Amino acid sequence: MKPKNMLMDTMKSGRTALGVWANDPETAELCAHLGFDWIMIDMMFTGMDFHDVQNMIRTCEAAGITPVVRMQTNPWHGYDARIGVDLSRLQGLGAEYVLISHSGLQEINEALEIARDWHRRALWIHPFNSREWEQRTDEMAQATYIIPHVESQGGIDDFDKVLDHPDLKMFFFAMTDLSKVLGGNAKKPDFNSPDLWKLVDRGVKKAQQRGIMVGANTSYAYTLEEMRQRVKRLHDAGMNFIMIQGAQFLFQVAMMEFLPNVRKDLGLV
């Protein structure tokens, strides 16, 4: 029996699916308990390896929260043929939702082709009987979601071409680095950048016309109230799924307010 898919169930019901970044089993279980729909497992800027990801996928499925894996890439460095190889391995581990921060259309073309492959946990659970190969292979491809993650100049240059791909089902805006690139490689992100929101609005409109589910992250704000406002703004802009940054970052923001007040209460300041 397939595990619960909170991300897709929530979006198909017409609601916005909410998630955070989390890379350990305890936090994944806590996020499920709190009512989040999905978590992002990050291989891009952490020490997570394939074995770690495999165990995180199993934890999420057991806890009832959808795992989305951001695979290791460097989109600012240019085209990388390793993306296709690593994607094959992630699919083999059971990853159905894979965020790909890409340098251009070629990487997404290759990823969407690889998504048709049948290897899904196949070395420990053979997925077919003698009559099921064609039907089950199609079902596997339909249940796999390659999510282009735009945050590089190459991703911007091929923005419309990626959204026009006939096999694309999901798309994601990386609001931090995307705003920096649009701002001339600025050092500081600007969530409120008019150029950023012009691109977002254009992308959401095209995605809605083509039936593509679209998501984004909140970038970084330093009060929980502002983070909340950003979630609402993304929702109102038409996002189907939103990442409210990392669980650790939200804890950090909460403690920046909480600890000074505790120290004040105790006469430590």
Automatic annotation (TrEMBL):
SUPFAM superfamilies: Phosphoenolpyruvate/pyruvate domain. Pfam families: HpcH_HpaI. Keywords: Lyase, Metal-binding. It comes from the Bacteria. GO terms for molecular function: lyase activity. InterPro entries: Aldolase/citrate-lyase_domain, HpcH-HpaI_aldolase, Pyrv/PenolPyrv_kinase-like_dom, Pyrv_kinase-like_dom_sf. Residues 20-240 form the HpcH/HpaI aldolase/citrate lyase domain. Belongs to the HpcH/HpaI aldolase family. This is Aldolase/citrate lyase family protein. It comes from Paraburkholderia dipogonis. The lineage of its organism: Bacteria, Pseudomonadati, Pseudomonadota, Betaproteobacteria, Burkholderiales.
